[in-house]
Design brief:
CATH topology of the largest domain: Aspartate Aminotransferase, domain 2
Helix content: 40-55%
CATH architecture of the largest domain: 3-Layer(aba) Sandwich
Bound molecules: (2S)-2-hydroxybutanedioic acid
Largest sheet: 7 strands, mixed
Strand content: 5-15%
Strand order of the largest sheet: 2-8-7-6-5-3-4
CATH superfamily of the largest domain: Type I PLP-dependent aspartate aminotransferase-like (Major domain)
Structural class: alpha/beta
Radius of gyration: 21 Å
CATH class of the largest domain: Alpha Beta
Number of domains: 2
Number of strands: 11
Distance between the termini: 51 Å
Length: about 400
């Protein structure tokens, strides 16, 4: 008998999760997983749990009294504290916040809201995180792309030219720090220029804040949000605690909408809540409980900031070592790797060279040739450099 599913098409594997699953089957002794963006302590391990997270989980186990539903918009303490973390202590009534299923949930919910009520199109950086186009295509927004990479640097003049020509009320997706995949961010002056231009042209800033604390520091990484707030923008911020607290699988994210005044506060909350209710009803408790307990307790907060600082500094140091070896042993053009921040950098490799890295050297990076620096260690650095050198030599 013919099945309902006989004609079902097949989507390609996810460029990051698919590759990660492929790597799990890899057995060669010299291997390196530089694919998905997770921060690990040793090669071939899963990300460890921050000690302060373990501590508050013990509290939760002892003190939690119910597993009842959270409100549709999420846990109020979590939203309040996450808002203070992102916007500073003076979070105002002009900001509406909702707990979401990770940063992806926030992006998707904002995308659906934008498409339904506010605008027709969203402009993504080219290149950008592999999942952005999938998320926003599903929401029905038309996708556009602004140039973000010229092979060595961020071509700011071309970006400005591009934004001068997009339609007013286009949403512009921005990475406030640790741009994924280039690792290169705008300078303070460039952010200021963009802020002025967006106000002049009536463009909608939409920040995807997924690597808070992994760039230059918790306060430093908020710079563009602070600048855009000061300038009086209405804007969107999608936030993820996956990396900054190492709670990847708890799906603790938030969406904030900044409005010019409080008039539409109830209606914005109402629309976003309706989207959440129809998709997953209300968000999960555990991740938000962890976050609220850390951000809401001075000692826990300090411990978290300290741990995150050590992770950031360790990552930046590995980036420096790797970048210097690339420059010294492979090509001077890789100087930009040293200048980058966060987990990622782009190598200038073709898809064929990327496949050679995988087939001949068991070094796994996505076809975009993005490399996750958090997967590099003294134990595998020589092997990775040797592999990159070899595929460069025989282009
Ligand atoms: C990445 O870019 O590797 C991370 O953001 C993980 C993911 O969900 O793709």
């Amino acid at each position: 008998m013919k099945s309902l599913f006989d004609e079902l098409s097949q989507n390609p594997p996810d460029p990051l999760f698919g590759l990660n699953a492929e790597y799990a089957k890899e057995t060669r002794p010299f291997r390196a997983n530089l694919s998905i963006g997770v921060d690990i302590d040793r090669p071939n391990t899963a990300p460890s749990i921050f000690p302060v997270v373990k501590k508050v989980e013990k509290e939760i186990l002892e003190e939690e009294k119910t597993k009842t539903f959270l409100p549709i918009a999420g846990m109020p303490e979590f939203i309040d504290l996450a808002g203070k973390l992102i916007f500073g202590p003076q979070v105002s009534d002009r900001i509406v916040g909702l707990q979401t299923l990770g940063g992806t949930g926030a992006l998707s919910m904002a995308g659906e809201f934008l498409a339904g009520e506010i605008t027709r199109s969203i402009c993504l950086s080219s290149p950008t995180w592999a999942n952005h186009s999938g998320i926003f295509t599903k929401t029905g927004l038309e996708l556009e792309a602004y140039p973000y990479w010229d092979g060595q640097r961020v071509p700011f003049d071309r970006i400005v030219d591009y934004f001068r020509s997009v339609k007013p009320k286009t949403a512009i997706l921005l990475h406030p720090c640790c741009h994924n995949p280039t690792g290169l961010d705008f300078t303070r002056e460039e952010w200021k220029a963009l802020s002025d231009l967006f106000l002049k042209r009536n463009l909608i800033p939409f920040f995807d804040f997924a690597y808070h604390g992994y760039g230059n520091g918790l306060n430093e990484d908020r710079l563009p949000i602070d600048l855009f707030m000061e300038a009086g923008h209405e804007m969107f911020v999608a936030y993820s605690f996956a990396k900054s607290m190492g709670i990847y699988g708890e799906r603790a994210g938030a969406l904030f909408v900044v409005m010019q005044n409080t008039r539409a506060r109830e209606r914005v909350t109402n629309h976003l809540s309706a989207i959440a209710r129809a998709v997953y009803s209300n968000p999960p408790r555990h991740g938000s409980e962890i976050v609220a307990r850390i951000l809401g307790n001075a000692a826990h907060l300090k411990e978290w900031e300290e741990h995150l600082r050590r992770r950031r500094e360790g990552l930046n140091e590995r980036r420096r070592l790797f970048g210097e070896r690339l420059v010294g042993e492979v090509s001077e053009k890789y100087e930009y790797v040293i200048r980058g921040r966060g987990m990622f950098s782009l190598l200038d490799l073709s898809p064929e060279q990327v496949m050679r890295l995988q087939n001949e050297f068991a070094v796994y990076i996505p076809r975009s040739s993005r490399i996750n620096i958090a997967g590099l260690f003294p134990e595998n650095m020589d092997h990775v450099i040797k592999a990159i050198k070899a595929v460069h030599e025989k282009k």
